[in-house]
Design a protein that fits this description.
Layout lengths: L1 H14 L13 H9 L12 H12 L1 H10 L8 H7 L11 H12 L8 E2 L7 E2 L3 E8 L8 E7 L3 H22 L3 H4 L1 H15 L2 H14 L6 E2 L12 E5 L3 E3 L3 H6 L4 H19 L1 E3 L7 E4 L8 E3 L5 E3 L2 H15 L3 H10 L9 H12 L12 H14 L6 H20 L5 H17 L1 H18 L3 H55 L4 H25 L1
Helix pairs in contact: 1-3, 3-4, 3-5, 4-9, 7-9, 12-17, 12-18, 13-14, 13-18, 14-15, 15-16, 18-19, 20-21
EC number: 2.7.-.-
Subcellular location: Cell membrane
Function: Is probably a protein kinase regulator of UbiI activity which is involved in aerobic coenzyme Q (ubiquinone) biosynthesis.
Amino acid sequence: MRIQRLYLITKTFLSYGLDQLIPAKWLPWSVRFLRYALFWMPNRHRDKSAGVRLRLALESLGPVWIKFGQMLSTRRDLLDPEIANELAKLQDKVKPFPGEQAQALIERALDIQSIHDEFDNFVVTPLASASIAQVHTATLKHGPDAGQDIVIKVIRPDIRKAIDADLKLMDTLASVLAKHLPDGRRLKPREVVKEYRKTLLDELDLLREAANAMQLRRNFEDSDLLYIPTVYSDYSRLSVMVMERIDGIPVSDVETLHALGVNMQLLAERGVEVFFTQVFRDSFFHADMHPGNIFVSRENPDDPKYLGIDFGIVGTLNREDKRYLAENFLAFFNRDYRKVAELHVDSGWVPAHINIEEFESAIRTVCEPIFNKPLADISFGHVLVNLFNTARRFEMEVQPQLVLLQKTLLYVEGLGRTLYPQLDLWKTAKPFLERWMKEQLGWRAVLRSVKENAPFWAEKLPEMPTLLYDYLRTQREQQQWQRAALAEFQAHQKRFAQRVWYGAITAALIVSTSLFYATDQSPWLTGCSALALVFSGILGWQRGRRSR
């Protein structure tokens, strides 16, 4: 089975001419010979560009490879811009599996005899189908939310076997590329596959997705920006998730949004605010915000709200990364390219030995042209590619923790461009970041820190006298021990010095006595030297015994 799959993948790659993406000079003679030997698999798509050929090949190989291409489209530090743009077009809409089979999987996961024991109005025909799972509609039958419209997401049967098999083949292919490609160290194909494996396996765990949804819902509770549907955790399992059904307009359906009179400028600005709020306030962001996962509420067109679904992929940032990002954004907005360069070095993203002035100049060359322009006139994809090329010149590797952030930022750009092309991203984001930085660095940050830590200190306060006494007693005992150890060390050094001194004298007397005897000197001189030798040896031996 694995050999058959490998043959199909090889045939697909060669039929779409993907081998031509790698210069022949980079490949060993054995690989070039094998390509010539497979003469019955010629490139059948010579009329298409490299990016189109790669996209079509991945689409023909199925869901696992489609999602791999989607992930690669975010790694613009690794790919040519034309190829990255084509991969971004990949859609994982696939043929659904039978609804009766989905019903059986749901019943097995929930350990119920019939789906009608827990749900009413279950629709066998799926509402939507994707590469990993598909969704069916129903209504809750029991509990305080009885009658609530819901969706039931169920993982495709046997998808794990297919994923594991393809991931093994991907890893094998990545190993070959890492070994033979001259640029393999920078491209890191095995690390890319490892990153993809983690992302894909996370998406197979619907309990994780349910927890992500509940976290996001809590973060935006009572918010005017974003609504996250309720997850019914009592019905959620590893392969099944039950969630409130939402009624919204796809964010890509601009015609309907205009027809309802939605405030498109406010909607676009709120998209930017949702992104920065998730990243900088919560350090927890929806990292799969493509148009298929974002809707707009039909209520209050003048005060529009986003509706979010599909929470299999989320990103997090630690405090240091978040701080450096905010400072970088503000430095960009203020056109302080020197500050940007210094922050990259301080954070370790760029080696300390690079020339700051040259790095500053390179950043200015890329970023200066984009200011004071509406979003319609700016291609963030182009800017990112230029920034990545600049980064490579200065030995900067893309930080793994920022890959999802870059992907999400690209989605936000596309969202803003679709909704309101005149949106000034810089003008919208700058006040938010300035306010966030003041909260992090100003007196509010001090008060918040005191407030957050007050319960801990209140709990520890009764223990403080005992802890202080124990500390002072330990310090006194430690000082006494240190003084005793120092005195012992000094005495030992003194005895050692005496042993060295007597040893040197004894050695000198041995040499002199031997010379006197060998040169037939007077007996009394030789005898005195020998007597002194014996006396010195005895004293040295006694000193040695005392020092033990």
